[in-house]
Amino acid sequence: MGRGSGAQESMVLATKDDDASSDAHIAGSLIDKEAAAGPPGAAVAPKKKICCACPETKRLRDECVTEHGQEACTKWIDAHLQCLRNEGFKV
Q1: According to the 3-state scheme, what is the secondary structure of 32-66?
Q2: What is the model's pLDDT at position 57?
Q3: Which helix (H) or strand (E) covers residue 78, if one does?
Q4: Average pLDDT taken over every residue of the chain
Q5: 22-43, pLDDT tens digit by residue?
Q6: What is the pTM of this model?
């Protein structure tokens, strides 16, 4: 009885170790894919809501569009989009 339970116990431990190393491998793969997704130094996830990010460029963009129309404000629209990208948003 002692030998049988010892063999079963070592098999259970081996299975748990295999599961742990498998989970670590999967987690490592996900981290590698996320790191490869963007350039070095790029934010992985935005820290703010998109409505609260880049208030300066948003204000300038909105004022320009209100006064001059969208076609005349591509400079400010592009600046705001770039600011959002710098904050980690995919726009």
Answers
A1: HHHHHHCCCCCCCCCCCCCCCCCHHHHHHHHHHHH
A2: 98
A3: helix 74-86
A4: 72
A5: 444 444 443 443 444 445 555 4
A6: 0.52
How many CB atoms lie under 10 A from the CB of residue 65? Answer: 15
Q: Write down the residue that tokens 């904050």 correspond to.
A: 87
Q: Which residue shows structure tokens 């004022």?
A: 63
What does the DSSP assignment read for 8-36?
HHHHHHHHHHHHHHHHHHHHHHHHHHHHH
Q: What torsion do the CA atoms of 6, 10, 15, 20 make, to the nearest 10 degrees? A: 130
pLDDT (0 to 100) of residue 24: 45
Cα dihedral sign, 63-69-72-78: positive
